[in-house]
Structures are given as structure tokens and as C-alpha cells.
Amino acid sequence: MEAHFGSAVRLASILAITGVSVGLTPLLSTPLIAQQVDGELSVQGTMAFNGIWNTANTGGSSRSTATGLRLGEGRYSGRVAVRIRSGVYVGASVSSWQFNLTPLTGYDAVSEAVDLAPYVQLYPLRHTGLFLRGGAGYVRSWAYFGAGNIIQGYKGSRLSGSAGIGCDFALRAHLALTLSGDYTKVANATNYAEGKSAVMIGVGLTVH
């Protein structure tokens, strides 16, 4: 049951991100969007692969457990944003994480989450490619864990906040290699094995 559930969440995330990527191509080719100001397109889109480090609730104590940074447990993320002025973009992102929790006390668990988040991305030093970003979003999470001979689970929704930093390295006109680091905090994550936070180290491609 856990395997099917995890596969379904991963498939949904990949389909959503692929849809963003495919939908961006014809959008960029329209005369309105293709207009440039100081070499920038009116929209930007990023698809990245992230290594993920999580913390989660482990029961009656405040102690948390993390999986560590493992590319094998990483996830893809997608972002689309509109330029509102030179060096300032407003957009939306979709990302996800999944981890196996093995606490010192409590039950082993498998936890999944999908995060949908509007964000603002700023390039304070435009010609360097360095950027800062922050946003607030909505996390949908699930977890399954064994308690004795019974498999229990939950699903819930939380608000989230995130902040990140990164840099675009130009590969060619309007295409860049993007390295980034983002921290996401989940508000009021009180259920057992529910993800409390995630650090995502990403590498991806950006059209802008």
C-alpha cells in the first residue's frame, strides 16, 4: 500500500512539473512574451533536481530525525515566473519530498509532501546572476507508520514559508545553469512523522 501511494505521489509531481515545462515552450514563442527588456524575457521558467534534507516529528519529545542529503531520494521541482520589472520576478513553484523516518524512539514511517508556493525572486546584482527568493505556500502531506500490528496514517494541509539563494550561470542566450539552496518551514506540523522542514540543494536549467 505504501509503495503504491508513494508511486502515485511521485507520478503526480512529475506530471505537474512536466506540464509546466511543456506549457512554457509555446508561451515563450508568443510575440508578447518574447519581448525583451535589457536582454530579459518577460517570463522565466526553471526545472531543477534537488537533493533533500528533512526534519520531522518523532513523537513525545521535541527531538527530530533527518534522512540526510541523498540524491537518490531527491525530487524535481518546477518554477514559472513573470518579470514585473528588471531583475524582479513573481511566480509559482511546485516541489515535493519523501523520506523514511527511523527515530530513536517511536515508529518507523514513510512520509510524503507536495508544496505549492507563490514566490518573489530578486536579482540584486543583475549581471552576476545571483538571486534571492522567498515565498509562502500550501503543503499537502501524507504519512504511514506501523504501530504494533496496525498500519496507521494521516494526511493533512499546512501553510509553509520558504527562503532561498542561488545563481544563474549563462550557457547561451536566455539559457542558464542554475544552482540553488532553499529552506522550507511547515507551520504547525504536529502529527507523528509529519515533515517540519526541508532543505533543498538544487541544480537545474532556467530559461529567462
| Helix/strand structural class | alpha+beta
Radius of gyration from CA coordinates: 18 Å
Low-confidence stretches: 1-6, 11-37, 60-72
Distance separating the two termini: 41 Å
Mean pLDDT: 76
Describe the overall structure.
It is a single chain. The protein has helices at residues 2-29, 31-34; strands at residues 36-37, 40-41, 43-57, 64-65, 70-85, 88-101, 109-125, 130-147, 150-172, 175-186, 195-207. With 208 residues, it is α+β, with helices and mostly antiparallel strands.
Please write out the topology.
Elements: H1 2-29, H2 31-34, E1 36-37, E2 40-41, E3 43-57, E4 64-65, E5 70-85, E6 88-101, E7 109-125, E8 130-147, E9 150-172, E10 175-186, E11 195-207
Antiparallel strand pairs: 1-2, 3-4, 3-5, 3-11, 5-6, 6-7, 7-8, 8-9, 9-10, 10-11
Briefly characterize the structure.
Helix content is 15%, strand content 64%. It has 208 residues and is of the alpha+beta class.
Fill in the keyword field for this structure:
two-stranded antiparallel sheet; alpha+beta; 11 strands; disordered N terminus; 208 residues; 2 helices
